[in-house]
Amino acid sequence: MRPSAERVHVSHGSGWSRSLELPMLQVTEAVFAADAVLEPHTHPRPICAVMLDGSFDTTIGRRAVSCRPATVWTEPCEEKHRNHAGRSGAHVLVMQPDPARADIMEPLQRLLDEVHEIDRCGITGSARRVLAEMREPDALAALSIEALVLTMLTQAARIATVRERNGGQPSWLSEARDYIHETFCRGPRLDEVAAAVSVTPAMLAVAFRRQYGRSIGSYARDLRLEWAVDQLRQTDRPIAGIAFAAGFSDQSHFTRECAARLGAPPGRLRKRLKSEGGADIVRRIGPSNVRDRR
User: Fold this and answer.
1) 259: Cβ contacts below 8 Å, ≥ 6 apart
2) Quick check: 197 and 172 in contact, CB under 8 A?
3) Cα 257 to Cα 288: distance, rounded to the nearest angstrom
4) Are 123 and 156 in contact (CB under 8 A)?
5) What does the buried/exposed string (b/e) look like for 259-270 if buried means 16 or more CB atoms within 10 Å of the residue's CB?
6) Which of 81, 74, 82 is nearest to 37 (CA)?
7) How far is Cα 64 from Cα 71, in angstroms, rounded to an integer?
8) pTM of the model
9) What residue segments make up the domains of the chain, in order of their start?
10) Which residues of the chain are under the pLDDT cut of 70?
11) Domain 171-285 = CATH 1.10.10.60
12) Residues 172, 210: contact at Cβ < 8 Å?
């Protein structure tokens, strides 16, 4: 049995692997068996890895990282962590720049010195090209692999920077939220929203709830009610027309929602809104900054 948190190569615990040491970096392809558990360990170099097939659940520090197909994640140098492969095992490409190369490490320092989990970043295609070069190397393979890997690392670093500016959320998640704001009146399906931002429905559902504290369906229903209530306050449109435009099945549906959520049917609520302003009533519903539909 290995001592706890021993420093190991990235292929440690794999059933099969191959590594290539290049002037600027090392790349490793590794395949891990189903349900393989890698007890706490460290690596002598920082890593940026791409999950090609299968999955890993990684615990690093106090953070849990879920590595699914097309996920890119990072593990800082000497950071203790534990990995657990999924039921289908894990097929991984690991990229490790040479820590002595300041020309590479300095621009990538923020990416490689922190734990990142990046979904749907368009790097998987390049990762598979690296594997093809490793499997059938020729005189230009080393040059091609280094160029591909440095491009991938640069892309990951830029995405991580943009995500940090956006408060830590991936750009596709805010795109999904925008899509719901634009289409809530017709009740978009989960798979429709996921397809619009090129992620799986499961990934979208989990990430959305984690970021916004509610399910995507609940969020859309709140938007619908908030918009309809705002229409009661700002316009004299018939209640039935507002209900239809907001996407309620009929006026009775809208009436039940108003009574249950806000304590009054639409007609009585409209009088309160017009006399009191009603901003506090709108805030009680949930999402704000609802986009006006024309």
Assistant:
1) 265
2) yes
3) 18
4) yes
5) eebbebbbeebb
6) 82
7) 14
8) 0.63
9) 6-165, 171-285
10) 1-4, 120, 166, 168, 277-294
11) yes
12) no
